[in-house]
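This section describes the prediction task in plain terms. A model, or a person checking by hand, is given the sequence of a single protein chain and must write out its three-dimensional structure as a string of tokens. No templates, partner chains or ligands are provided. The sample shown here is typical of the held-out split.
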Amino acid sequence: MPAPSLSIVFPAFNEERRLPGSLEVLNGYLDDHFPDAEVIVADDGSTDSTADTVRASASRYPRVRLLSLPHRGKGNAIRAGMLEATGEVRLFMDVDLAVPVAAIAEATTRAGSH
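The expected answer:
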């Protein structure tokens, strides 16, 4: 199976409340623009139900997968997620979607993917 064109890493720590909406927005965008993309939620040792939330989302969105990590900080979660990613282009986004999903197209264009 060929590598996806794009990997998105979501570093997450105690994000059970924001993840469902953010994953819905992200997956809607990816369905329209990057249908082969993968999404890796790098759970940085959350103490809430973040992991269960990701598993539930993965049953709805097959491109989503959980990477469970010990709590070592956001930088470690990003690094681990990037190393786990298989996409030709790899990006990370915060779960709060401070950078709009529409920026993905520009980032991938600059990287030479889209």
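For orientation: The beta strands are 6-12, 38-44, 64-69, 89-92.
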